[in-house]
Amino acid sequence: MSLPANETPRQPAGTPDAATRQRMRAIDTLLADRGQLFQALFMSAPIAKALVDLDGHVLVANPVMCALTGRSADELSGRHVDLAGPPRRPPGRRPGDRAGAR
After folding, report:
1. d(CA 40, CA 45)
2. DSSP symbol at 85
3. At CA 87, angle to CA 45 and CA 56, rounded to 5?
4. Which residue of 17, 24, 54, 97 is 20 to 30 Å from 84, comparing CA positions?
């Protein structure tokens, strides 16, 4: 059965048309580009950064955070942010004391 010349075929309900599919592809590309940009900025930031979940557990840490804490990214992953910091000072040392100072 053919359609009259002045009618266009209808899409089944819920099927996006060509323009909608094109917009969806453009949005996917934009989101992927922004995700890559975010990752590049996060990993190259000159300050310590970490992404944590709602419970305060580290998901990802950048290299500066790893250097600051003395732990690898794998060691930080899954730790609670309260436990991610550098090791505690030895007993008897005060915050202003320098190593080797008398």
Report:
1. 8
2. S
3. 60
4. 97
Cα gap 2→77, rounded to integer Å: 62
List the structure tokens of 19. 């323009």
Q: How far is Cα 65 from Cα 19, in angstroms, rounded to an integer?
A: 45
pTM here is: 0.54
Q: Is 68 exposed, middle or buried (0-12, 13-18, 19+ CB in 10 A)?
A: middle
84 within 8 A of 69, measured Cβ to Cβ: yes
CB contact at 8 A, 35 and 27: no
CA distance 71 to 77: 10
